[in-house]
Amino acid sequence: MNGLYLIAHLAGRTVAIAAEQVESVVDIGQVTPVPRASRGVRGLAALRSRVVTVIDSYAMLGLAAPETGSRRAVVTRVEGHHYAMMVDALEDVAIFEQQPLTGGMSFDGEWARAARGVVTRDGEPILVLDLTALLPVMAEAA
Amino acid sequence: MVARRELTPRGAMDDLLQEFIAETRETLEALAGEIVAWEADPADRARLDAIFRFVHTVKGSCGFLDLPRLARLSHAAEDVLAAVRDGTRPADTALVSAVLAIVDRIGEIVEAIDAGRGLDDSGEELLIAALDVDAAPAVVFAPQAANTPQRAPTRSVRLSVDLLDRMMSGMSDMVLARNELARRMRDGSPDPASDAALERLSLTVAEMRETVTRTRMQTIDALFSALPRMVRDTAAGLGKIVHLSIEGSDVELDREMIEMMRDPLVHIIRNSIDHGIESPDVRRAAGKPETGRLTVTARQSGNRIVIEIVDDGAGIDIERVIAKLSAGGARDARELRALPEQAKMALVFEPGLTTKDQVTEVSGRGVGMDVVKSNIEHIGGRIELDNAPGRGLRIAIHVPLTLSIMSTIVLGVGDQRFALPRQSIEEIDAVSAEAIRIDRLGDGMVATVRGRRLPLVDLGRLLGNGRDVEDIGAMLAIVGVANGSFALAVDHVLDAEELVVKPAAPAVMAAGIYGGQTLPDTGEPMLLLDASGIAAAAGLKFEHVMAALAATEVVEEKGVSALLFVDLDDVRRAVPLAIVDRVENVVAGAIRFVGGQLRLTADGGIVPVVAQGSVDRRGGVAVLRLTDGESSVAYAIAEACDIVTLPLEIATVAVPGIVAGVAMVDGEPIELIDPHWLFGTYGAADAPAVPPLCLFVSDGSGWMGNVLKPVLEAAGYRVATADTGETPAVVLAMEEDAEVLGTLAPVVRLRRARDGGTESIYRYDRDGLVAALAAAGGRR
């Protein structure tokens, strides 16, 4: 199954994000904190006239955020709300064939929830991440 | 397999099909009222034509779109309707019901096509067979006159809401860009030409913003057009006869707001029919017409919309409500009975209350008025009840014009700003103010504001700034929530702002203390706080109505709260807050000089107006609606300023007049309005322009006409001894008279004996009689 993927870097790892999940790629400005919000909510940021919820992708994957604070983010839209998912850096967009995760590959905790498959770029396997799986799970949605 | 194909549209026909679905849905909505009107009066040719056109259009489109099922149904209905049009068949009840069933079915199929799911086609043969001349008549509905207005074609286009939203967000972008530009220009060198250009741009942008906001408005007809059908079905299901009249369908409201109003309105109307309006025989026994009346009206009042639902049913039986509430043992019946009238009415909104002993299909499933109330409050509205036991109930829902623009107060905590809806704030005080006392109580804090003890929540600490319990913010906002109030300590109170509030992401809302997010002109996102969420997060629990009342009773300790305002003659004056019912803006046209005095026409009544200067005829006028509990007076002002606490020492003036005295407020002498003089002078003149009508019945001996008439006329009534067609304000009858039939007016009964019960009044007890008439609804 061929599809368009955005290649990004997240905590030093290379990941692929299905293009249909990506609305835009932005540099976020000042973030307004949201006290008492769920884990993984970094705050709110203004993107032109729109307010987006900034998601700390690192925290959602159980990682520490890199010290050199990157402002890059991938904007995705889920159920009418816009989320900016923080990443280290972005590469390009290309067509890849997604392969299923084979039995041998297993991941822990958060990664297991977000991993969808693998694409191969010049022999290098790249994990396909599902951005919606990185959103904080809300009690209300249940 | 025909049906299967019909329900899975595909290919190039999709667009046409979507258009057909949208159109049919729209026509069906508009048709709902027509159908009921037609049923009430099958001879109404205009209505018949409207329905005929509908089935005809559906039939035409079906052939083209290859939808054989719909084609068959609409064809059958068209044939029958054509026969009615030709006069070869009468439009009897059976026929009307059969046509209605087909119209309903068409609606169901269209919805199924849109959702892409299958719909069982069994029973359709029966629907068609029911159209037959020999078909057995189904349920019988009582005929009633309906006055649903005919629709005129409107000059409009269909737009998707999505497009409007995009337009709105583009508009916000433009405002932000304008602000940015203005900031840069202020920093740079001043250039008059550029300034003028920016000024023009700002004006255009502001105008544009208003226009775009208006595109989101929709007439409330979108909400009302479905009511005739709903009322008809509900009433028929319960074996009741209800006449519905609708007024104010052209009032405009934000389309989102209309959606939010739908459920509460449906719930209230169902309640009215199920619990309020009695069955025909009960009504007959009570001396009422068999047909119950239900009136739904909408009107705009300032920046709010008022929707009223009035029925002439049994009203709310407070005793029953109390019995229900105390039955569980949670509440003490005696205590509840001791509550003031207003608080007793509020019991209707207690959770889980249902006064119906049996659960009916229509209502009484335990989802009660509490849900309706909280839904309405959620959108920034409030609900009022006006109960007349045995005579009916009036429910008024007040909601803001738009959901998205909210009037807020911006608060600062640390270096972050938050908005709090203005309507939830009762007052704002500095912690250092004299009237305020802060104490540590157990592990929490309490604030005593002018003798009123309130739990204190420090917003900074709640948000996790880690400061010590006693280290609270410098400002206190007294915040009202459903069952009580609390003091919210913040660092700064910054500004009042009108904000466009949008829902925040679920992950943000999960915090439980936010109501939404907004992007103010600074370009930095801001969160809207939710007062009841804060109370819950801080673990505040408010007791029932009783405790809340007890708390408000200790308010009067020292100094009276007063509203400071700038009068029309530019003098700052103050009026005791207790007599201020509300401050509102009225259009200047509503104030007229009639009967030797300025009078304000509002809420269907006339109120005398006090003005200390000339009322500006252009634009709006701010008025204070003052009330002493009975009469009310409107006081025209330039603007309301602040709520202040008056000192105890007041220098009184020698001559009685509108000014009672002078008090020092913040080092400035302020004239105080004398409410006693005000109501004494103006309130007494509170007679309606047309005196209320008092109807005498059974005046066989002429006693009423000869003896009583002069007394009543002196008391300000017009008197009639026979039904003039006008609904009287009150009806007077002798004790022994039979039931007074056919009137909605309250009845006062007289007795011949000096002593007797409280049911009637001794006929020569002049004061008692006048008081009873006034209480029954004559002179207010």
Can you characterise this structure?
The complex is a heterodimer of chains A (142) and B (780). Chain A has a single domain, classed as OB fold (Dihydrolipoamide Acetyltransferase, E2P) (Beta Barrel), CATH 2.40.50.180. In chain A, 7% of the residues lie in helices and 47% in strands. Chain A has helices at 57-60, 109-114; strands spanning 2-10, 13-18, 24-27, 41-47, 50-55, 72-78, 81-86, 89-97, 115-121, 124-129. In chain A, strands 8-1-2-10-9 form a 5-stranded mixed β-sheet. A 5-stranded mixed β-sheet of chain A has the order 3-6-7-5-4. In chain A, strand 6 and strand 7 (81-86) form a beta hairpin. Chain B folds into 6 domains: 2-129, Four Helix Bundle (Hemerythrin (Met), subunit A) (Up-down Bundle); 165-213; 219-400, Heat Shock Protein 90, CATH 3.30.565.10; 413-491 and 503-553, OB fold (Dihydrolipoamide Acetyltransferase, E2P), CATH 2.40.50; 561-685, no CATH class; 693-775. In chain B, strand 4 (292-301) and strand 5 (304-311) form a beta hairpin. In chain B, helix 3 (45-65) packs antiparallel against helix 4 and helix 10 packs parallel to helix 11 (255-276). At the A-B interface, strand 4, strand 5 and strand 7 of A face helix 7, helix 18 and strand 17 of B.
